[in-house]
Write a sequence for this structure.
C-alpha cells in the first residue's frame, strides 16, 4: 500500500504536478559535514576492504562507549555487532532467537517489517493492540495474557513508528518483569531514541537491574539520529552467544557492513552532537505545528506524538463519506488515493501498520511543505460529505 501511494506520487511528480509527500521514513536533513569528511578521509586511508563480520574494532568500541554513556552502564565491545542498518540487526536477532513456530509479541500498530521478518524466520507474530486512549502505550496486562510457552521475544519500540509513542518507565518495568519471569527476551528497537520531544524521556529497560539487562537485546544505529539512512549502519547489543549466532548468520549473508560506512559511523558517534540537537529542535517545531493544525481540522483525532517524526491521526470519521465525484471512501487506502488525486498529497495508509482508518504523516519534510500539504488535506477533508 505504501509503495502504491509512493509510486502514484512519483508518477504525478514526473508529469510536473506539484505533489507534497508526507511519506518519508528518513530525515530530510543531509548527513552532517564532519561525518562525510571523515568518510572521504577513510576511503583514502584504505577503508575499501572487507572488515570483520561483527564490525571494525573501532566501531564496536565507539558504539559500546556511545551506548554506555547514553544508558549509564558499561557495554563490552564484544557484545556489539554491527550490521547493514538496524533492519539487518533485527533480521539477525529474529533469526537467531526464533525457531519455527516460536512467537514474538509485537505492540500494535507496528512497523510492518517486524512481522514480515519474524515470518521469514518461521515464527508467528503476535500483535497486542495499544489503544489511543492509552497514548498508544501497550498494556502490560494484555502482553501478559498473550504470553504462551512458545513466546520467545517481547518487542518494544520507543519512540514508535508509526504512533510516535514514547514508553514510560512504569510500563517498561512491567514488561521487563514479564521477560524476566518467563525467561524470555525483551528486544528494544531504539532507532528513534534520540528523537524525543517536550517532557518525553527515553528509558532503556536494561538500566533497571542486571537481571533485566541479561534478558534485554538492544537494537540501535545511526540512521535516524545522524541522518545517515543511506549509509546502512545499525548495531545490536546482545549476550555473547547471541552475537556468535548472529555473526554466523551474517557471515553467510552480507558479511560486513560497508567499511567506509563503518568509518563514517565512528565519526558520527565520537563527534559533536550540535547538529543532532539542531535537527531535533527543528523536528519538534514541525511536530508542534502539525499537531496543532491537524487537531484544528473537524473530524480529525490525534494522539500527540512525543518522539520519532510521525503523526498518526485517526480519520475514521471520514470513512463512509463521499468524494465530490460521488465515490465512497471505504477505508484509509481509499482516503489516501483521494488525497493524492484531489489534494496532490501523499500519506501512508494506517492499514500498512494494521490500524485501519488511520494515516501516517511524516514531518521529515520542510515547514513550507508541511504548511502547504496540511492546507490541502484540510480542504480535501472538508469536501467529503
Ligand atoms: C521502527 C524502525 N526500526 C528500524 C528501522 C530500520 O532502520 P535502518 O535504516 O537502520 O535499517 C526503521 C526504519 O524505517 C524503523 O522505522
Amino acid at each position: 500500500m505504501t509503495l502504491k501511494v509512493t509510486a502514484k506520487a512519483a508518477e504525478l511528480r514526473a508529469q510536473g504536478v506539484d505533489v507534497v509527500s508526507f511519506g518519508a521514513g528518513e530525515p530530510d536533513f543531509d548527513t552532517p559535514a564532519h561525518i562525510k569528511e571523515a568518510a572521504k578521509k577513510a576511503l583514502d586511508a584504505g577503508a575499501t576492504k572487507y572488515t570483520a563480520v561483527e564490525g571494525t574494532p573501532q566501531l564496536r568500541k565507539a558504539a559500546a562507549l556511545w551506548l554506555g554513556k547514553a544508558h549509564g552502564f558499561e557495554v563490552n565491545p564484544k557484545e556489539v555487532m554491527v550490521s547493514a542498518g538496524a533492519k539487518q540487526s533485527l533480521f539477525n536477532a529474529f533469526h537467531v532467537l526464533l525457531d519455527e513456530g516460536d512467537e514474538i509479541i509485537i505492540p500494535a500498530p507496528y512497523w510492518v517489517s517486524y512481522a514480515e521478518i519474524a515470518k521469514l524466520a518461521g515464527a508467528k507474530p503476535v500483535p497486542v493492540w495499544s489503544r489511543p486512549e492509552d497514548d498508544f502505550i501497550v498494556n502490560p496486562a494484555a502482553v501478559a495474557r498473550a504470553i504462551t510457552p512458545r513466546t520467545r521475544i517481547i518487542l518494544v519500540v520507543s519512540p514508535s513508528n508509526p504512533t510516535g509513542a514514547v514508553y514510560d518507565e512504569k510500563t517498561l518495568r512491567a514488561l521487563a518483569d514479564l521477560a524476566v519471569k518467563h525467561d524470555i527476551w525483551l528486544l528494544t528497537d531504539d532507532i528513534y531514541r534520540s528523537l524525543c520531544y517536550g517532557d518525553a524521556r527515553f528509558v532503556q529497560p536494561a538500566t533497571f537491574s542486571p537481571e533485566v539487562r541479561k534478558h534485554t537485546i538492544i537494537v540501535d544505529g545511526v540512521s535516524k539520529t545522524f541522518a545517515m539512512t543511506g549509509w546502512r549502519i545499525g548495531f545490536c547489543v546482545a549476550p555473547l552467544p547471541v552475537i556468535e549466532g548472529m555473526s554466523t548468520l551474517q557471515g553467510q549473508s552480507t558479511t560486513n557492513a560497508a567499511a567506509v560506512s563503518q568509518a563514517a559511523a565512528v565519526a558520527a558517534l565520537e563527534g559533536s552532537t550540535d547538529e543532532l540537537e539542531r535537527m531535533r529542535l527543528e523536528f519538534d517545531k514541525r511536530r508542534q505545528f502539525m499537531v496543532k493544525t491537524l487537531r484544528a481540522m473537524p473530524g480529525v483525532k490525534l494522539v500527540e506524538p512525543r518522539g520519532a517524526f510521525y503523526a498518526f491521526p485517526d480519520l475514521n470519521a471520514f470513512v463512509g463519506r463521499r468524494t465530490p465525484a460521488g465515490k465512497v471512501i471505504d477505508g484509509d487506502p481509499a482516503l489516501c488515493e483521494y488525497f493524492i488525486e484531489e489534494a496532490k498529497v501523499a500519506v501512508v495508509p494506517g492499514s500498512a501498520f494494521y490500524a485501519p482508518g488511520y494515516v501516517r504523516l511524516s514531518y521529515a519534510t520542510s515547514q513550507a511543505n508541511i504548511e502547504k500539504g496540511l492546507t490541502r488535506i484540510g480542504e480535501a477533508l472538508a469536501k467529503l460529505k
The chain has a mean pLDDT of 96. The chain has two domains: 2-25+275-382, 34-270.
